[in-house]
Amino acid sequence: MEASADAGAAAAAAAARTLRWAGRAGHLGGFPRAAVFAAVGAFAKAYASLLNTTTVHNADALLRLVSARPPGTPLLTVSNHMSTVDDPLMWGFKGFPISDAKLGRWVLTAEDICFRNVVMSYMFRLGKCVPITRGGGIYQEHMNEALDVLINGDWLHSFPEGKIAQDDEPIRRLKWGTASLIVRAPVTPIVLPIVHSGFEKVMPENLFFGRRPPVPLWGKKIDIIIGDPIEFDMASLKQEASAVPHDSSSERKGWPIITPDGLEEAAQRWLYQKMSDKIQSVMERLRKKLLNLKQH
């Protein structure tokens, strides 16, 4: 009984801290959200289009899907993660409607960084940010919030590497959370890969005595490449996953069985790894293509 009460109190504290209600479109008539998108959009435009030089390859692929994809079809963009300002600056390039709160992306953000107090929680909620608890697992309550975004047919952005990496190395092994959202969404989202470079110079992690600069830097070159949608034959993948031998050693993890497909934990693990490997492979090819374009 005492443990249950403690869990309830912890859940209530988390809800109070993360202020999900502030992220609703109708909160105060939508005016606070519109104001935040206008301000952040102006900031991103200034840094991406005026203070730095940004080159975007295949921008039309993103613009088309953001503005005119089939009704009810969710969009899931995935990218590498090079700095704390990747989002929103990566959307600040010329021609992109970053100040449009209705079209704007939802984005997965680290709870311990962006939701540290009520004021920050309120602002990031207005900016359509979904908090993710590090180490909370792919079935944490906040991931259900992210799933709701896809169920509503909206646009969600994810950094599937799960952490910032500022060295110019191959795409790292992806976390399974992004794949789990694709699998659980009732309508399979359009998965669009994006790779960028240059933000690690705009906001370096170790500039002043091992700290980030107080504001983003300027005079840098930013390159962004947008790939083609990644296709997933979910029916075939789920059928393959269902044939994976049951692993009784994984039962202690307590993962829920995915319905209506009835996929147990061993099947889920196989499926998420298979899909994550495919996304990682596509992003790595895109990274090499961007590197080649920068050299010519």
Nutshell version of this structure?
It comes from Urochloa decumbens. It is found in: Membrane. The chain is of the alpha/beta class.
Structural descriptors:
Tafazzin, acyltransferase, membrane, 12% strand, 11 helices, 296 residues, globular, seven-stranded mixed beta sheet, alpha/beta, Tafazzin family protein, single chain, transferase
Can you walk through the features of this model?
This protein is α/β, with parallel strands linked by helices and 296 residues long. It contains 11 helices and 7 strands. The protein has helices at 2-18, 31-51, 59-68, 86-89, 111-114, 118-126, 141-151, 177-184, 199-202, 234-242, 265-294, and strands at 53-57, 75-79, 106-110, 129-132, 155-158, 190-197, 221-226. Strands 1-7-6-2-5-3-4 form a 7-stranded mixed sheet, with helices on both faces. It is globular, with a radius of gyration of 20 Å. The model has no long low-confidence stretch (mean pLDDT 92).
Q: Tally the helices: what do you get? A: 11
Could you state the order of secondary-structure elements as H and E? HHEHEHEHHEHEHEHEHH
Question: What's the overall average pLDDT, rounded?
Answer: 92
| Helicity range | 40-55%
* Inertia-based shape: globular
Characterize the biggest β-sheet: 7 strands, mixed
Termini Cα gap = 66 Å
Derived structural class = alpha/beta
Radius of gyration: 20 Å
User: Low-confidence segments, ≥5 residues, pLDDT <50?
Assistant: none
Write out the strand line-up for the largest beta sheet, numbering strands in chain order: 1-7-6-2-5-3-4
Q: In percent, how much strand structure appears in the residues?
A: 5-15%
Number of strands: 7
Main location: membrane
Keywords: Acyltransferase, Lipid metabolism, Membrane, Transferase
Pfam family, one: Acyltransferase
InterPro entries: Plipid/glycerol_acylTrfase, Tafazzin
